[in-house]
Amino acid sequence: MCTLLLAWGVDPARPLLVAANRDELYARPTAPAQFWADAPQVLAGRDLEAGGTWLGVTRGGRFAALTNVREPDVRPPPNARSRGRLVAEFLRGEDGPAAYLAGVEPGAYAGFNLVVGDAAALWYLSNRAGEPRPLAPGVHGLANAGLDTDWPKVRCGRAGLGALAAGGAATTAALQELLADRRGAPDAELPDTGVGLALERMLAPLFVAGPVYGTCCSTTVVFHRDGWVDFCERTTRPGAEGEVVVGFARA
User: Fold this and answer.
1) Of 155, 156, 210, 152, whose CA–CA distance to 186 is shortest?
2) What's the chain's Rg over C-alpha atoms?
3) 34, 47, 244 from 50: Cα distances, Å
4) DSSP-assigned letter for residue 188
5) Which of 190, 220, 224, 235 has a CA positioned 20 to 30 A from the CA of residue 59?
6) How confident is the model at residue 119 (pLDDT cuts 50, 70, 90)?
């Protein structure tokens, strides 16, 4: 997952809005979003290489999502665990957000940003940014750096999501349109993360469209105050396009 946008406590009728693009190698084996046979309460896609996931929800209203930290010159720890486990284990479990994050071993993973929540709270943890903390109400964005880092795609995404939330117009379809933005950014505004200018340019849009790596799926979730959840995932990986649309009442 490489871009995660959240509106938390902004729209009174929709307490949590989620819009996220997963950027990955197109060849990495992945299952589209579905309720998992081995955890029927979990609705998420699945990384078939490591077994975890990048974003998911549960019938009970739990939510979790992850982005990696881009640090090409930093070696992962020996025997590093799959970061996708962090999302999957929260969704499978029963601990509240704060209790779950308190039990995470940050040093066992390569760089990550993790957001977990339920109907009452939304929490953030990065193993590059100190202790877990609750997210304040507002519009937040994550790419492959810390929370609300002012990268062009994060700035653009937060502005778009904020406008939809403020106008009460945040449907899953509207959020999908936001995530489909392929506009780049001037070189002067690009981050320097150590991957070179050509790659920074390719990775700059919300929707990344490289030759072998890019946005493989876009996921949007609307949590309504009355307990209804709207979920939409569009798979955009070349040769595997499709859409999953699910609506359910929180248990």
Assistant:
1) 152
2) 17
3) 17, 6, 22
4) G
5) 235
6) confident
Distance in angstroms (rounded) separating the CA atoms of residues 37 and 158: 35
What pLDDT band is residue 45 in, cutting at 50, 70 and 90? very high
Residue 106 is classified by DSSP as G
Reported as a single tens digit per residue, the pLDDT across 95-105 is: 999 999 999 99
Amino acid at 107: G
- 7: closest CA among 197, 221, 204? 221
> Beta strand 242-249 with 228-235: parallel, antiparallel or unpaired?
antiparallel
Instruction: Locate 248 and state its tokens.
Output: 């359910």
Q: What's this model's pTM, rounded to 2 decimal places?
A: 0.97
Are 198 and 4 in contact by the 8 Å Cβ rule? The answer is: no
pLDDT band of residue 243 (cuts 50, 70, 90) is very high
| Six token digits for residue 84 | 């996708």
